[in-house]
Design goal:
- This protein is mostly helical.
- The chain has two domains: 1-40, no CATH class; 42-136, Helix Hairpins (Orthogonal Bundle), CATH 1.10.287.1080.
- It has helices at 18-28, 43-56, 70-86, 100-117, 122-134.
- The longest helix is centred in the last third of the chain and has 18 residues, at 100-117.
Length: 141
């Protein structure tokens, strides 16, 4: 448990469970960075936050210069993927990991948004693909 949680001026109920504590942390805004193995966010919550951000910028509004169409999102996804690839140009490993997490996050956000605007449940699609690939014969490829 993160050290600052131990000093919170709150009393936890005796029937406190981990999910209740996670919700309390998220709601309170006290969680500045995710401690490993403590707080995770599901796909629906990520999707919701992504939509909140895009809506706050006005990009879903009619006439927006950044129209959030499937085509535009697919193009943006590939552009961001190319920015990830740029970190590996002429080398097997990136020299610096400072910017790579942001580029990977951009790819993830565009992928999540593209699936969402097309009404594709990305979490189910990923799980279904993993199940298909489990029994796939990779030697023929």
């Amino acid at each position: 448990m993160p050290r600052d949680l131990l000093t919170w001026p709150v009393s936890l109920p005796s029937d406190c469970n981990l999910q209740w504590l996670r919700d309390l942390i998220r709601i309170s805004g006290r969680l500045q960075s995710r401690p490993d193995d403590f707080y995770t966010m599901d796909m629906k919550e990520l999707e919701s936050r992504m939509h909140e951000f895009v809506a706050s910028k006005g990009w879903y509004e009619v006439g927006s210069p950044k129209k959030q169409s499937p085509r535009n999102l697919a193009v943006s996804l590939i552009i961001e993927a190319a920015e990830v690839l740029e970190h590996f140009q002429w080398r097997e490993q990136p020299d610096d990991l400072t910017d790579l997490p942001d580029e990977l996050a951009d790819v993830g956000l565009y992928l999540l948004q593209l699936a969402s605007v097309l009404d594709i449940d990305l979490e189910s699609a990923i799980l279904n693909k993993l199940a298909k690939n489990k029994d796939r014969d990779w030697s023929a490829d």
